[in-house]
Write a structure and sequence with these properties.
Elements (H helix, E strand, L loop, with lengths): L6 E5 L15 H7 L5 H7 L3 H5 L16 H13 L1 E3 L22 E6 L6 E6 L13 E5 L25 H10 L1 H18 L1
Antiparallel strand pairs: 1-3, 2-3, 4-5
Protein name: Endonuclease/exonuclease/phosphatase domain-containing protein
Amino acid sequence: MMNSCVHVIGDFNARTGTLLDFVIPDENLVEVLDENLNDEITDFLYDYQNLISLKIPLKRCSEDKMRPNTQGYKLVEFCKRNNLYITGGRTGSDKGIGKATTKDNSLIDYFIVSSNLFKYIEEYEIIPFDALFSDVHKRIHVKLTTEVTTIEKEKSSHKRKTIKWIEKDKHKFIENIRKNEEKVLDLCNEIESFKKNEK
C-alpha cells in the first residue's frame, strides 16, 4: 500500500481500547532487514513518523474501558500490517477523548486511514445517539478537504441496488419518524438548501 490513500469507515464490532495500531521498529528488526533495507522498506517501517510530523498523537484515547475483544486484536493487527491508523481519539473534536460510538458506551465503529490522509481531515466528530438513525450506533461525522477535478460522466444504465423493506419493523420506523418529526423536517430543509447551492 505504499503511497496509497486508503480510508475505511464502519462498524467493525471491534473493541480495541488503546492498543497500539502501529509498530515502532527496534534495532533487532532493522538489523535483520539490513541487507534488504531500501527506501521503500524504510518508508514503510517508519510510516508512523508521518503522524508525528502532522502533530497527530501516536497514543489514542478511548472512553471504552472494556478489554479489547478478538475482533479488536484482529483490527489492530490489520492496521499494523498495512500502515493504517485509527482516527478516533486522535483528530477533530474527538482528539484526546475517543468517544464511544454506541449508546451502550462501546467504541466499535471506526474511521481508519493511511497516514497521508490525516492532513485532509478537516472535521471528525462522534454525533450523539439518535434513534432516528440507528438502534444502537452513533454517527461518525467526517469532513475531508482536498482539491477535486470534476469529470462529467455519461449516465449509467446500471440499476441501483434497492434496500429491502422489513415489514415487521414498520412500526419502529413510523414511531421514530413521529418522535423526531422536527429533526426530519430539519433534515429535509438541509437537503433542500444543498440542492439550491448546487445550482
